[in-house]
Specification:
By secondary structure, the chain is α+β, with helices and mostly antiparallel strands. The protein has 7 helices and 7 strands, in the order E-E-H-E-E-E-E-E-H-H-H-H-H-H. The protein folds into 2 domains: 102 residues, Beta-grasp domain (Ubiquitin-like (UB roll)); 71 residues, Alpha-helical ferredoxin (Fumarate Reductase Iron-sulfur Protein, Chain B, domain 2, Orthogonal Bundle). A hairpin with a 2-residue loop joins strand 6 and strand 7. The longest helix is centred in the C-terminal third of the chain and has 15 residues. Bound molecules: iron/sulfur cluster and FE2/S2 (inorganic) cluster (FES).
Length: 211
């Protein structure tokens, strides 16, 4: 049997001097398989055209739709409304990122800055001859090396990170940071189930070996 759910979404436009942060409340009929993305789209189409939130793929691939859902960061397009038995769902923008408007934050520039800070590219003097075939790699080594390539840069591990809340400069699990306090919220919340803690531990072992 369908039920009426309540979405409470934070609204605030930092570009406008007149804007004041507040929660807007919307009531709508829940449909089968309704995700937060579907609910928000319905709200925008039928109740509040001004409500801002991000999405591209609607399939957990682009990493655009991260937001705080009843206090925990999650992808709106992968979160079913039926998983909230009380029927009241409070949405806020993810902390740690620049707020653009309402539920929309700028993860792109943050990720770009983080990547430059940690110089996350291969540092080598070796010149690659692109006319030659790529060197073969054992599948097991390739799996281990490219596992973290499944990251969709959604920023959820950063928004969930207790260390980040205490140290604004901390780059979070997505940057595999050495200052991590192993609170494990990054791995608990990662929508791609990446083994972030074991990879951070691996980095720590490597850094210790370098000293
Ligand atoms: S590691 Fe996981 S939670 Fe963090 S940005 Fe990548 S996909 Fe998102
Ligand atoms: S819209 Fe792309 S991950 Fe949700």
């Amino acid at each position: 049997m369908s039920r009426t759910i309540t979405i409470r979404a934070m609204k605030y436009n930092p570009q406008s001097k007149l804007s004041k942060a507040h929660f807007a409340e919307y009531k709508l009929e829940e449909t089968d398989g309704m995700t937060l993305f579907i609910a928000l789209t319905k709200i925008r189409e039928t109740m509040d055209a001004d409500l801002s939130f991000d999405f591209v793929c609607r399939a957990g691939i682009c990493g655009s739709c991260g937001m705080m859902v009843n206090g925990k960061p999650a992808l709106a397009c992968r979160t079913l409304t039926k998983n909230f038995p009380g029927g009241v769902i409070q949405l806020m923008p993810m902390p740690a990122f620049k707020l653009l408007k309402d539920l929309s934050v700028d993860t792109g520039n943050w990720m770009n800055g983080m990547s430059k800070r940690v110089e996350s590219w291969i540092h080598t003097n070796h010149t690659v001859d692109i006319s030659k075939l790529e060197a073969p790699m054992e599948p097991k080594l390739a799996d281990e090396t490219f596992e973290l390539d499944r990251c969709i840069e959604c920023g959820i591990c950063v928004a969930a990170c207790g260390t980040k809340l205490m140290r604004p400069n901390f780059i979070g699990a997505v940057g595999l940071n050495f200052g991590c306090m192993s609170l494990v919220a990054c791995e608990d919340n990662c929508p791609k189930h990446l083994p972030l803690q074991s990879k951070i531990a691996y980095m720590r072992r490597k850094l210790v070996a370098l000293k």
